[in-house]
Amino acid sequence: MLSQVVSLYQIDNPSLAAALKELKATAQIDLDAVRSRAHSLGRRRADKLVKSCLSEGHFASRHNGPGFTALIFGQHNLNLGDILEHHCQNIAAGQNLLKLQAKTQLSMVESYCVKSYKPAKALTTPYAQRAWQGLLTLRFNGLPTAEPVALVVNDDRSSALVTGYLNLRGFDRFLYHDFQQLDVKQRYHLIGAYGRLIGRMHARGIYHADLKACNVLIDPAAATFYFIDTDRVESYASLSLEHRIKNLVQINNSIPREVAPPIRMHFMKCYSEETGDDPKRLFAKVWLKSCKQEILYTTDQGDQREFWR
Length: 309
Prior knowledge:
Elements: H1 2-9, H2 13-22, H3 31-52, E1 60-65, E2 68-73, H4 80-93, E3 97-100, E4 104-109, E5 112-117, H5 127-140, E6 148-154, E7 159-164, E8 169-170, H6 171-177, H7 184-203, E9 206-208, E10 216-219, E11 224-227, E12 233-235, H8 241-252, H9 261-275, H10 279-290, E13 295-299, E14 302-306
Antiparallel strand pairs: 1-2, 2-6, 3-4, 4-5, 5-7, 6-7, 8-10, 9-12, 10-11, 13-14
């Protein structure tokens, strides 16, 4: 029962220990075991909720339009045909674009963000459906994302994902342009919040295969981070050390080199509070792999490449 409460309300270990002390619990309770069980319960509950959103039901309604089928999340009331047409006009006119690539096109339409994908190969899942599943996997595991709005699959197997628009800066851009203007206490507060978020995600068995800083948006005033680009998000019963280190190296090598080692170490300490790692040993492993790769991040002036040596 204790694990169920911790899972539902996402109670951290210090708060749980304080509550048990206040309740004068007499039995010896293994907080790590409670935490592990809570993560398992939460992940299974989230997996069921995600599955329920892949067809019409309590969380999603089906909408059929000219040449496409869609699932609309929750109580969203929108003219999906008009939104998709407006998105196509944005691409043709080169306006309100957030990304334009051969595989994906991203534009802002009113208060929505529309991301269209090229057709998927036969017998494979449409790209937007993968992103929809990843988005909901994060969301139902209590991890911040854009608001899910609609999944669209066209007759030619091209697809689109519609979410709420987040008017926020990418984390790499923020670190490059704004981070050094903060005082030391604010810097450590933000980095600590980010470390605990990534630690909580990994403790839940969630893997984001492209966890670069450009795929995280930041609200610095609230110290809140939002995951985007979710078509390669997976849920596992337990996340391997190899997967976790890969994510940590992606983070470490997608932020400006000027972010000092003590700040990076603080991230690792806060991360390890959630995962139970030895932060110094983990930091050494991440650093060893990071140094063999280049640093790549995005600024307002374009991509920036740096090297550790």
